[in-house]
Design brief:
The complex is a heterodimer of chains A (256) and B (320). By secondary structure, chain A is of the alpha/beta class. Chain A contains ten helices and ten strands. Chain A has a single domain (2-250), classed as P-loop containing nucleotide triphosphate hydrolases (Rossmann fold, 3-Layer(aba) Sandwich), CATH 3.40.50. Chain A has a six-stranded mixed beta sheet, sandwiched between helices. A four-stranded antiparallel beta sheet of chain A has the order 2-1-4-5, covered by helices on one side. The two termini of chain A are 36 Å apart. Chain B has one domain (5-242). Helix content of chain B is 74%, strand content 3%. Chain B has 14 helices and four strands. Chain B has helices at residues 5-22, 26-51, 58-75, 80-102, 107-127, 129-132, 160-183, 185-195, 197-202, 207-233, 243-256, 263-277, 282-299, 305-315, and strands at 138-139, 147-149, 153-155, 235-236. In chain B, the strands form two sheets. Chain B has a two-stranded antiparallel ribbon. In chain B, a hairpin with a 3-residue loop joins strand 2 (147-149) and strand 3. In chain B, helix 2 (26-51) runs antiparallel to helix 10 and helix 4 (80-102) packs antiparallel against helix 10 (207-233). The chains are: A alpha/beta (256), B mainly alpha (320). Chains A and B meet through helix 2, helix 3 and helix 4 of A and helix 7, helix 8, helix 9 and helix 10 of B.
Chain lengths: 256, 320
């Protein structure tokens, strides 16, 4: 069954068509890659799926329910977790507070009632335990009281993923915008191991990434965009053999 | 009891026993002022420090509470507690009305909206002569006499000595409430919005709801402080709630440390002390304020309290 379906998505800014009639669907429990040169519309597609921008045309379905036109917070609460190209953490909060924010309720009304009822010791034991597990698993236990801005960039990105792992409600689809950009080989390896753990739990991934080696290794299916249009799709082997893709990246007349 | 809690017990005792030192004199007057302004600074800190919303309209809300409470008690014969409650509620209502259009703007534009609101409201205080007394001020606001409480019986707050306790209890309860709020899920959500609003939104939170909530809460607290202030001074005047008061409050929060719990009340204390020392030199005071603001923003963006405590720790060994 397709977890996410994108149908004829179109988005223009002024006279520029950033995304032009793009369709694809993501199977449950797969790792889906979205690639293309800079400016080919990958991030715009992310924004349209998560509701941060409203598509001009086309529809998006998540678990067979239409989500296009809904607000970003509503879409997130249906089980879509998104990471950001530049770090998507809360820099002045501690590592632990970042995870608490992720794990806690998001509605004001419920949070306010919790505040009135229990104040400081509000975090339920099972959630605290869940955070501790993830801290242990990701190796952040040592720095749990550290202000996130003091962590190296790569660690911040891994923390962002860790916060999606504890997110409430638990995301079924992870949308990762260039997760490996700026990371060292070691950091990429630990990022991948976290993704693998989630995948074994049955989660689905949509990746935008420029690191081809990591991408080809991990993806089940890839869609290639150029100038807002879909120019190829297929499994990694097919994409690597596709002449149009090579041209889009390197220009005409070059053989990789 | 842990060792560190002793200093809070001492501070609390000092708070309780202070009027016995100050009696009906000037010291008690200053203490009452500091208590009322600490409510203002800490509520503004909820906006500035914890949510990242700089508001230069806090003086205006302070005034709305003061005038409403005074007018209700003088002209409509409300008892003190009812006037205080109604003034707080009315201030919340105005804040709600302002917050809905103003949160369409962001960053510096939002600050400009709050400044505009402050200036408009100041003009109303000055111009609505029939209601506010205009430039002459609202004179003869009664002190709260004869409050009937369930356990304590009938209390009167006409002396400085007793009014101090009224302000003390309000300030204490409000600060305990704020301390609890900033550690709660609501507080963490506010800080998340401050740090990265887009990310918070993408994790399923509705930032607008939280911003409106905290703006209404902080403004309501300013209104409550206004009511306490008006009934204490028995007087309200546009100058007490002007643009410059809003800037003072901004400075108090910055001076103590925005986003720290104890910073803003400490900033109130420092600024009131400076005001006392420079009592005679009005022009010099404004000059000094300006210089201080620039120095803080450049050298001490975290405020005075943090560097001072770490300095104190270095010179007082063996304590943590």
């Amino acid at each position: 069954m397709a977890l996410l379906q994108v149908q004829n998505l179109t988005k223009s800014f002024g006279g520029l068509t950033a995304v032009n009639k793009v369709s694809f669907s993501i199977e449950e429990k797969s790792i889906f890659g979205l690639i293309g040169p800079n400016g080919s519309g990958k991030t715009v597609i992310f924004d349209c799926i998560t509701g941060y921008q409203r598509p001009d045309q086309g529809r998006v379905f998540f678990q067979d329910r239409e989500i296009s036109g809904k607000r970003p917070n509503q879409i997130a609460l249906q089980g879509v977790g998104r990471s950001f190209q530049l770090s998507g953490v809360f820099p002045k909060l501690t590592v632990y507070q970042n995870l608490i924010f992720s794990v806690q309720e998001k509605t004001l009304g419920r949070n306010f009632l919790t505040t009135l009822r229990s104040g400081g010791g509000w975090l339920p034991k099972d959630l605290a335990k869940r955070i501790d597990q993830v801290l242990e698993f990701t190796g952040f236990q040592r720095v749990r009281e550290e202000i996130v801005a003091n962590l190296p960039y790569g660690q911040q990105k891994i923390l962002e993923f860790a916060s999606l792992m504890v997110m409430n409600p638990d995301p079924l689809l992870y949308m990762l915008d260039e997760p490996f950009a700026g990371l060292t080989q070691g950091e990429i390896a630990s990022y991948l191991s976290l993704m693998r753990e989630r995948r074994e739990k049955g989660r689905t991934f949509l990746l935008v990434e420029h690191n081809m080696r990591a991408l080809m290794e991990i993806c089940d299916f890839i869609v290639v965009l150029d100038h807002g249009e879909k120019i190829a799709e297929g499994c990694p082997e097919e994409i690597q053999a596709n002449k149009g893709v090579v041209e889009a990246y390197l220009g005409h007349g070059v053989v990789a | 009891m842990r060792r560190s809690s002793w200093k809070w017990v001492l501070l609390f005792l000092l708070g309780v026993l202070f009027p016995f030192i100050g009696q009906e004199g000037y010291l008690t007057h200053m203490a009452i002022t500091i208590l009322i302004f600490s409510i203002l600074a800490s509520s503004l800190n909820l906006l500035m420090g914890y949510t990242g919303l700089v508001s230069i309209a806090h003086g205006a809300f302070f005034g709305i509470g003061a005038y409403t409470s005074g007018i209700l008690m003088m002209r409509a014969g409300f008892p003190f507690l009812a006037a205080l409650f109604m003034a707080t509620a009315f201030t919340c209502l105005i804040a709600l009305g302002l917050s809905i259009p103003s949160f369409r703007t962001k960053g510096i534009y939002y600050v400009i909206v709050t400044i505009a609101f402050q200036l408009i409201v100041s003009e109303i205080y000055d111009g609505w002569y029939a209601m506010t007394g205009g430039g002459l001020g609202l004179r003869g606001i009664p002190k709260p006499g004869q409050i009937s409480l369930p356990v304590l019986g009938t209390l009167s707050f006409t002396s400085k000595f007793s009014y101090y306790y009224l302000a003390f209890i309000f300030a204490l309860v409000i600060h305990l409430g704020i301390a609890r709020l900033i550690k709660s899920p609501v507080g963490i959500s506010l800080m998340a919005i401050r740090d990265n609003e887009t990310k918070a939104l993408m994790m399923g939170l509705n930032p607008l709801a939280y911003k409106v909530f905290v703006f209404v809460l902080a403004s309501g607290l300013a209104g409550l402080a206004g009511s306490l202030y008006a009934h204490y001074l028995e007087f309200a005047h546009p100058d007490l709630f002007s643009f410059f008061v809003s800037v003072d409050l901004f400075l108090m929060v910055m001076l103590g440390g925005a986003g720290t719990f104890f910073g803003p009340p400490f900033g109130v204390f420092i600024l009131e002390m400076i005001r006392e020392v420079l009592h005679e030199f009005v022009a010099l005071r404004l000059f000094l304020y300006g210089v201080m603001l620039v120095l803080i923003i450049i050298f001490l963006p975290e405020g005075l309290l943090k560097p001072l405590t770490s300095l104190a720790k270095r010179f007082v060994p063996g304590r943590t």
